[in-house]
Specification:
8-stranded mixed β-sheet, 15% helix, 11 helices, globular
Length: 666
């Protein structure tokens, strides 16, 4: 039967989302654990909050049951080796203390708390025999704070979404399944990430930079340490970021993700293989032109995921995620790097996946431009079977606009990929206002993932179009590197040429009613656009950069970003930094501009919005500033639900005013 469309997309749909995430196959391949996140009423009147709980589904019958209940959120389910228990993280007992480690029997019952650590824990993993559990946590401070004054001695002292981290380091802990006091295995003035057990349970691999310059470098190293602790052994000195080590089934090799920074942050992330004894590395995917990262953006995703490479049966293949164009899919490569294949294909993106013990089944999380995430099964016969319908239960009954893909040749001959969405109530022969959406990153991509914001604009009568300009990931290193040390040049040309292409090739676009918006790097480009052209009649800049000079010292990553992306330090290259700063051209702005920013944004700090707003207001330009308290950089994706709704309403208000009402030519 055809779909019975009954509802149009609205901002408050966020309250109805049931976001599925982090599917995990049981060792026997009979059940799948996954997380479902919903919005529930909060204690404060008029506010709402997220709650996540763990569900189980029988693969054969597709019967699903909720395993965990109660207040707070339960995430990160991980099966014990014998399949009898599930580890998970929860803040159910004390939300302020952070996520703690719990264990629950497979068939239900009372969950048992295993940790009680200030600041919470992360990255839990069962030992191969299920007798121990490792996790990451910050060791308790030796001295209790007697003042609210912060004494800062590190350059990397704050982190967006985490706050002030100047006295916190993440280290490796192990505890027994019975729940004895956790034992700290690593210590020192460095952070540990991505721990992984060896198959025999005798050692643990992890990522760290233990040098004196740990806060100044993006470089990471691969270490192994005994399960009993002791001095870690460096297995490989990285030239750039490393992540997610995982042992082969026989323990002879460790696969990991990494890049050598040949082209800075534009370098592809590859799958590497190293012998676990001698430490001889080999890049398995360098010659295949893909980057083993998931960067397709969406604004409707639940917590958790699985970025680790996963070894298949008998250790022949390594499975991993990679972004190719506007999609993220599962790929595999053999341990010699000679056999390479794409496993999933289609107009969708895979967010995470897991394998059955014999790798005959793959369970994965899938989203598309017209579907919220749901769990699918790829069986040994190559059939794709949808297992959950939490996402499609909502989207199947909404009027949605399906994006149409297009490509065009840029002025330098490079092919650029984009998509255009017609208004939901589209009528042939009519012309509609159109909004250009610009993604963040810049090493990210738009494509086949659900964007509630885009569907909302299409529902309100707007054409929405978006491209992946130079600087985007998923199109090779040269494509991504093209804007390094030259922001606002080739990327700006790609965007403006996309506008001209859309105006020329889609007769339903009204060229006199164009709007533009973007967040983070997309906010920077929005600022750059309105200071360099007046073809747009309305603009909304979000979590943006207006001044690279001040960004260097106020952003959590500014000092690294400035060096790698702009080519140095602002005091040595002041002209270069200011030349690429939109605020230097603020007098040129003619487009009415709405500035949306979060007050706790440490990635693109609030001062970036403030100085751009004050400059525009001083010049008596048409501008408004909307500040969101208690929110960070990711407001649009995981901010408080009521704030996300209010943000969308402000965007609609601004575009309706200047593209449909006052200030509009029609």
């Amino acid at each position: 039967m055809p779909k019975r469309l009954t509802w149009k997309v609205k901002p408050e749909d966020i309250y109805e989302f049931k976001l599925v995430s982090d599917p995990q196959m049981s060792p026997d391949g009979k059940e799948i654990a996954f997380v479902v996140t919903e919005v529930k009423p909060a204690k404060e009147k008029g506010k709402k909050k997220y709650e996540s709980h763990i569900w189980l589904m029988n693969v054969e019958t597709k019967e699903a049951r909720q395993l965990t209940f109660g207040k707070g959120s339960d995430i990160n389910p991980r099966w014990s080796p014998d399949g009898k228990h599930l580890l998970f993280l929860s803040n159910r007992d004390n939300e302020k203390k952070g996520m703690q480690l719990y264990v629950i029997p497979r068939y239900g019952g009372e969950a048992r708390r295993m940790t009680d650590i200030e600041g919470g824990v992360s990255d839990p993993q069962w030992a191969p025999k299920g007798r121990r559990v490792l996790f990451l946590a910050s060791p308790p401070s030796k001295e209790k704070e007697k003042t609210d004054v912060k004494v800062i001695r590190r350059i990397f002292y704050k982190l967006d979404g985490a706050g002030f981290i100047h006295e916190k380091r993440r280290h490796l802990f192990v505890l027994t399944f019975e729940g004895a006091r956790p034992k700290q295995l690593t210590s020192g003035d460095f952070d540990v990430s991505d721990p992984a057990w060896s198959p025999d349970g005798t050692e643990i691999a992890f990522i760290a930079n233990m040098s004196e310059n740990t806060d100044y470098e993006v470089r990471k190293d691969l270490y192994v340490i005994s399960k009993m602790g002791g001095k870690p052994r460096k297995l490989y000195s990285g030239k750039g970021p490393l992540a997610n080590p995982t042992y082969s089934p026989d323990g002879k090799y460790i696969a990991f993700l990494g890049q050598d920074m040949e082209k800075g942050f534009a370098t592809n992330t590859n799958v590497w293989l190293i012998t676990s004894d001698t430490g001889r590395p080999r890049n398995l995917t360098k010659n295949y032109g893909i980057s083993a990262v998931s960067v397709v953006l969406g604004d409707a995703r639940g917590p958790g995921g699985n970025p680790y490479p996963i070894w298949g049966r008998a250790g022949k293949y390594i499975y991993f995620l990679a972004t190719k164009g506007g999609s993220t899919h599962i790929f595999r490569v053999d341990k010699k790097g000679k056999s390479f294949a794409q496993v999933t294909e289609g107009e969708f993106s895979v967010d995470s996946f897991s394998l059955s013990r014999r790798a005959s089944k793959i369970v994965y999380l899938r989203t598309s431009a017209v579907n919220l995430p749901d769990v699918y099964l790829l069986n040994d016969e190559g059939e794709d079977i949808q297992l959950t319908n939490f996402g499609t239960d909502l989207t199947d009954y909404r009027y949605l606009s399906k994006p149409e893909r297009f490509t065009f040749k840029a002025s330098d001959g490079k092919e650029i990929e984009g998509w255009i969405m017609k208004p939901v109530d589209f009528k042939k022969g009519e012309k509609y206002p159109a909004i250009l959406e610009i993604h963040g990153g810049p090493r990210a991509a738009y494509g086949y993932a659900f964007m509630h914001e885009f569907q909302l604009l299409a529902t309100r009568g707007y054409v929405v179009f978006y491209i992946n300009p130079r600087g985007s990931a998923g199109y090779g290193e040269d494509f991504a590197y093209a804007i390094v040390k030259n922001y606002g040049d080739r990327d700006y040309k790609d965007l403006m040429e996309a506008v001209e292409y859309v105006k020329t090739h889609f007769d339903f676009v009204d060229p006199d009613r164009l709007g533009v918006t973007g967040g983070s790097y997309g906010g920077y480009m929005t600022n750059w656009i309105v200071t360099h052209t007046d073809i747009f009649k309305a603009a909304v800049t979000q979590r943006s950069i207006s001044n690279f000079y001040s960004f260097f010292g106020t952003s959590d990553i500014g000092y690294i970003f400035g060096k790698e992306e702009l080519g140095g330090e602002p005091w040595k290259r002041p002209r270069a930094f200011l030349k690429k700063s939109p605020i230097s051209y603020v007098e040129n702005v003619k487009t009415p501009l709405l500035i949306i920013h979060s007050e706790n944004d440490y990635r693109c700090p609030m001062e970036q919005a403030e100085q751009f707003y004050v400059a525009l207001k001083y010049l008596k330009k048409e501008v408004e500033l909307v500040r969101f308290p208690d929110e960070g950089h990711n407001l649009s994706r995981n901010g408080q639900p009521h704030h996300r709704v209010e943000r969308l309403n402000h965007i609609l208000r601004w575009f309706d005013t200047y593209l449909k009402g006052k200030g509009s030519k029609k």
